[in-house]
Design goal:
By secondary structure, the chain is of the alpha+beta class. It has three domains: 88 residues, 2-Layer Sandwich (Pseudouridine synthase); 63 residues, Alpha-Beta Plaits; 148 residues, TruD, catalytic domain (Pseudouridine synthase, 2-Layer Sandwich). Helices cover 30% and strands 28% of the residues. The relative contact order is 0.17.
Amino acid sequence: MRYKQTPEDFEVEEIPAYAPNGEGEHLFLWVEKRGVSTPEMAKRLARHLGLTDRDISWAGLKDKQALTRQFICVPSKVEGVVALFADADVKVLSAKRHRNKLKSGHLDGNIFTLRLVDVTDAGALQAKFDALCRDGVPNFFGEQRFGAAGKNAEQGKQMLMRGAKGGNRFERKLFLSAYQSLLFNRALERRIAAGTLAKALIGDVLKKHETGGEFVCADAVIDQPRVESFEVSPTGPLFGPKMRRAEGEVGAAEDVLLAEEKVEHSLFEAGGGETQGARRLFRVRLGNPSLEVTGDTAMLKFGLPAGSYATVVLEELGASYSQ
């Protein structure tokens, strides 16, 4: 069972955190791209519009080998020439003004429409998909987070050990966040191995799915029903000075992750804005999921919150990437 034969087999549409209101100094472009990365798409727009890279912003990066739609923000002074933009791989579908500049993270999530081929057991695929819909998806960072041969995380660790020095701001963010992500994935792997992914443990930092509010579990008996109803879920560490520390045995287990790496909590303070730290949900729900199988082809559709990976869903289903 394989995916990504063509960009059209992997369709992504951004769910904006808010819609442009029609007035202001910024112009939100609703852009469709095919087979190019978000930064490359932005460079093509910048060249046509006579802008610099700093003039253009977006809420989130979208897959390169995909057909994607997302908002791109440019100064409203170029509104008159946007309609003249022509590119074989990038289309501006609409443009509307807004008061505030679009910034990284200003999105609620993404909707994915995916095609799988060479499906040999539709019943098994349906059963796995139903389980993910019921139990949630382990919120691993996908392989694309770690770069070619997974080297980004190791570079991030070495940079952290040097006091987060070296490289430009983009490289620091790329490498340091990859190392944080690696440690999170290890914590999640151990949680799954222990059979406690959907369990409230004393000392857990639990997060509310609806609001993002966090609190430490003091009574597992009280909090477990909230976990089972998907009101809240356990979280894992993205280490940094602003991360809320877990307590008790849960906190001790997270400290072990760093001890194994011979890394101190205090080292993340040197990363500044690149390693502030946070709690990340250990599991997420699929939004409005659907699966249709016709012959040896399956069409999947579902939503995921910002920062979660559709490729992780496909791996859980047993699908492999095909170039």
